Amino acid sequence: LPALLSPPDAEKTPSYWNKGARRRLELALALQPAAQRAKNIILFMGDGMGLSTMSAARIYKGQLAGGSGEESVLAMETFPHMALAKTYTIDRQVPDSAGTGTAYLCGVKANAKTLGLSGAAVYGKCHSTFGNEVDSVLHRARLAGKSVGIVTTTRVQHASPGAAYAHSASRGWYADANMPAEALRDGCKDIAYQLVHNTDINVILGGGRMYMTPRRTPDPEYPDDPDQNGTRKDGRDLIAEWLSAKQVAVGEEGMCLQAQGVCHCHWLCSRWQDARYVWDKKGLDAVKDDSVSHLMGLFEPKDMRYELNRNTSTDPSIVEMTEKAIRILRRNPNGFFLFVEDDHIPRAGGRIDHGHHSGRAKQALMEAVMLDRAVARAGQLTSPAETLTVVTADHSHVFTFGGSTPRGNSIFGLAPKKAKDKRAYTSILYGNGPGYSIRDGARPAATLPAAEDKDYRQQAAVPLETETHSGEDVVVLAQGPMAHLFHGVQEQHYIAHAMAYAACLEPYATEPGCRAARRASHGTQCSPQPLLTLLALCMAALIVRG
Question: Which residues act catalytically here (predicted)?
Fold first, then answer.
């Protein structure tokens, strides 16, 4: 336990700190840039995970392990390279998740509430979409032959994952039922439709079932609750469309694997069903990693539940979803791109963000801890020699902790002294939000154990229905090939360019070193003539089976 590794008596001696600093100095002196190109990229995005949230999550992680917490280390904090990203959008000093998602995924700053569009697009104006589309790094990775995936604890049509595949003048156009008639007449498509039709995404895991099915379609998990039914007005079953399209697409792609020098038609000879849809943890667990090239898992009608509220028998965690995605995507010899989001605010989206919006710090910090566990698991499943892993946030929140609390104080505990109004207050506070409260003309005193409850709302200075984002820079942490490109203070859209350069994606596909990287990744591909021969044999085998 951290408390045993760092006993108070040892910390009182200068040698304790001097030895620790020397070890870190030696590691820094030995650090060399990994200048080779990345075969794989994993982008972890903690929605709303500002620096104060990361610091508090670190303490919470340590306290969950039985330590005092302050000396704990998040897995993401072991990454050797770091930068700061400026999060403003073209039109806002304090951003939203759509404009920032367009920046770090598509490589351009944009306007708030718009997805996958340049700054020339106008929020809510469908006609401004056409001609202003910008493609994400995920889309470009798929065009380059890599497998791609999305994992999120929100609805998969939410702003952050939506920026990976959609071009929408409004982040709120989840389904056609959420769109104005004018936008539909002008030819704009809802985000759920674009999820299925814009980019061939191999793995899609998150929430958002209701936006995929026709109105009044009962939800498989909540069939007796009409509020969870499908919402589409056009009558389309996008899940069925996706499954049907992928059966054809998989056959056209002809994914080949090389085993012991022999090229096999894996998708045709070994598996006829190469795409799968699941809606609960049992279904996800039943999917064998080598049996599918495409997997869609939608585990809630809207956003997934907070980790502290999650039914562990029916809903997978972000760690479990991340592992499943990596195990499927890494089978592609060309590599993969994976986007993983956890919203850190209790409301209804990447859950870190949703936790903060509702003023429930414990929900938000648990989501941050879970994202870090997913980062750690991804590190165990991939090699840093070929995988660039980046961890960042889209924006921060007006969340802070202070009050001269003593070492080892519960991160959700009280400050040691009362405020000027002679009432106790929690260390964690919000600048604004639903936690504002006046009773009998005064601020209510914070008490224990109430303040430790998962749904406790920390107090806020300004009354708002939901807590707001904040505008300070966010941290970018990186390890693996080209991780040294993340340094200094950068504009947020630089993140997409650094990832694209690292993996030889457009517009950097012809940069020095990319040709050799392509030869290395394509070395295990099948040559055309043996493939045609085996294709004929596979077809014959299928006819015989039939």
Answer: 97
